[in-house]
Amino acid sequence: MPVKNERMTCGRPCFSRSMKTLLLNLSMLLISSWLTSCSNQPDAPSLTLKSVEGTSIELNEQTPLTALFFFSVSNPVALGAFDRLPDKLDDTADAIAIAMHVDRPPNISIMQQRTLVPIVIDEANRITEAFGGIQLSPTLILVDKGKILLQQRGRLDYDAINTIIHKQQRAN
Questions:
Q1: pLDDT tens digits for 21-50?
Q2: In a shared domain, residues 157 and 76
Q3: Which of 11, 44, 93, 149 allows an S-S link to 142, with CB 3.0 to 4.6 Å?
Q4: In a domain, 104, yes or no
Q5: Are residues 60 and 90 in the same domain?
Q6: In sequence order, what are the beta bridge partners of 58?
Q7: Same domain as 66, residue 35
Q8: Host domain of residue 34
Q9: Which alpha helices (H) appear in the chain, and where do they start and end?
């Protein structure tokens, strides 16, 4: 026959004051470390890029809020996202399109003529490797002052992207 627990009321265990304090402190420590780990944004690589039109673009800790859009002309989803980028992306963020190494420069030059978004050709795969070896197109990486705020692959959720842009603008 089980021994009756003196600390049981209504079928639930009762904790002593010191046990409650310990559990509360442990919970607060776990929540605090979770929030700290969530707020640590990875560093964006420092790079010097050259657009199709010959403009030099610096990515470093002084770079303002910028969306890096990696795409390939052979991917219809990426091309559609590329065409919608100027209309869908909040205009408070800068945008740079990065053509992946599989694309031919003449095709990218033609695309540059139909958009105001600067395009960079990643011929040597240097940029995609610097961002962790991006292989899926489209990929959008949102950076601000040397930190990566967001990375989306595949179909882009512009509402989520713009929410982060607005939040970051308020923080700056």
A1: 666 555 554 444 444 344 578 999 999 999
A2: yes
A3: 149
A4: yes
A5: yes
A6: 48
A7: no
A8: 8-39
A9: 17-39, 76-88, 105-112, 126-130, 158-171
